[in-house]
Automatic annotation (TrEMBL):
Entry-linked PANTHER family: DIGUANYLATE CYCLASE DGCN, REGULATORY COMPONENTS OF SENSORY TRANSDUCTION SYSTEM
Top EC class of this enzyme: transferase
Transmembrane region(s): none
Signal peptide (from-to): none
Organism this protein belongs to: Paraglaciecola algarum
The EC number(s) this enzyme carries: 2.7.7.65
InterPro entries according to UniProt: Diguanylate_Cyclase, GGDEF_dom, Nucleotide_cyclase, Rev_trsase/Diguanyl_cyclase
Any matching Pfam family: GGDEF
Protein name: diguanylate cyclase
Length: 296
C-alpha cells in the first residue's frame, strides 16, 4: 500500500477506491460535492484551505503541508508525535508538489485508502492552481528588474493596509526617483540605461529587510512597502538606500543618485492618499536639490 504514494499512476484505470462498505469517510454524493467544491477556485491558497477543511472533517486531519518548488503552504497544526503521510504530486514524470498530511492518531487501512482517493481528486485542481500562480506571478513582475510591478504594488498595499489595521501596527511607503538617469539614456543609449536600472533595483532590494517589498513603477521610479515600520524606521531604510545608490560603482560613474519621499500610514489613509503624500514628499526632495529624503 505504501507504494501508492503518487496521486497519479498511468497504470491505474480507476482513481476511486470503493467506499460503499465503510461507515467512515465520504459517500459517493459527498465525494462528488467535494470535487465540485474544489472546482470553485483556482487561487492556490483558497484551494488549499478548502482541501484542508474537507480532510479535517472527513479524516480528522490536524495539519497539512504543500511543498512546491521552493515554497510551502502550511495549514492547521503540526501536533507533537503526530502520524504523517507524505504523498507526491506527479504529472507524468514531472514532480509538481509533495503533500504531507499529519494526523493525531495512526490511520486505519480504510482511512489510508480514502486519503489517497481524496489526494487523487485534489491533484488536478492543484496543478491548475500552480499553473495559474506561475502566470499570475509573471504578470506581477517587472520584466527588466524582476521587482514587482505597479499591479503587484496595488495588490500588496491592500494586503499590508489590512494587516496594519488588524494588528494596529504602522507601515511605511517610500517613493524613489533616480536623479540624472535621463542623461544615461541620452549619452550612452538604452542598453546602458537598462544596466543602470537593474543595478538600482538590486541595490534597493539589498537595503531592505526580508519582510519589505520593492517595486518598479516604470522608467526610473521605484517604491518600497515597509511593514511594521514607523517614521523612524522609514527614515533609516530610506537613508540606507540613498547612501547605497550614491556609493555603488556603476551608478557613481554615471552620477546617479536618488530622491526619496516617505510616508507612514495614518488612521485616515487609504492606498491613494498614502501614495499621494509620499509622492508629494518626493517632489519636495527633487525641488530641494535631489539626492535627499523628505517625509510626508
Amino acid at each position: 500500500m505504501e507504494q501508492l504514494n503518487q496521486f497519479y499512476q498511468e497504470e491505474l484505470s480507476n482513481s476511486y477506491f470503493p467506499l460503499e462498505q465503510t461507515t467512515q469517510g465520504m459517500t459517493q454524493l459527498e465525494l462528488n460535492q467535494f470535487i465540485q467544491k474544489l472546482l470553485t477556485t483556482i487561487e492556490l491558497s483558497e484551494l488549499a484551505e478548502l482541501y484542508f477543511q474537507q480532510l479535517k472533517t472527513t479524516l480528522q486531519l490536524s495539519g497539512l503541508k504543500i511543498q512546491y518548488q521552493d515554497n510551502m503552504l502550511e495549514l492547521g497544526e503540526q501536533v507533537k508525535n503526530s502520524h504523517q503521510k507524505s504523498l507526491k504530486c506527479m504529472e507524468s514524470n514531472l514532480h509538481l508538489a509533495t503533500i504531507i498530511y499529519s494526523f493525531p492518531e495512526q490511520m486505519s487501512l480504510r482511512s489510508w485508502q480514502i486519503l489517497q482517493q481524496m489526494h487523487v481528486n485534489f491533484s488536478y485542481p492543484l496543478k491548475n492552481a500552480l499553473d495559474f500562480q506561475k502566470v499570475k506571478q509573471f504578470a506581477m513582475k517587472d520584466f527588466l528588474t524582476s521587482l514587482g510591478n505597479r499591479a503587484s504594488y496595488e495588490e500588496a498595499i491592500v494586503r499590508v493596509i489590512s494587516q496594519s489595521e488588524r494588528h494596529n501596527a504602522p507601515f511605511g511607503l517610500l517613493v524613489l526617483d533616480m536623479d540624472n538617469f535621463k542623461q544615461v539614456n541620452d549619452t550612452h543609449g538604452h542598453q546602458e540605461g537598462d544596466k543602470v536600472l537593474v543595478t538600482c533595483a538590486k541595490t534597493i532590494q539589498n537595503c531592505l529587510r526580508d519582510s519589505d517589498f520593492a517595486f518598479r513603477f516604470g522608467g526610473d521610479e521605484f517604491c518600497c512597502l515597509l511593514p511594521e515600520a514607523d517614521s523612524r524606521i522609514n527614515g533609516l531604510i530610506a537613508e540606507r538606500i540613498r547612501h547605497a545608490i550614491e556609493a555603488t560603482p556603476l551608478l557613481k560613474t554615471h552620477n546617479i543618485s536618488c530622491s526619496i519621499g516617505t510616508a507612514t500610514y495614518q488612521d485616515n489613509d487609504n492606498q491613494l492618499s498614502m501614495f499621494s503624500r509620499a509622492d508629494e514628499a518626493l517632489y519636495r526632495a527633487k525641488r530641494t536639490g535631489k539626492n535627499c529624503i523628505k517625509a510626508a
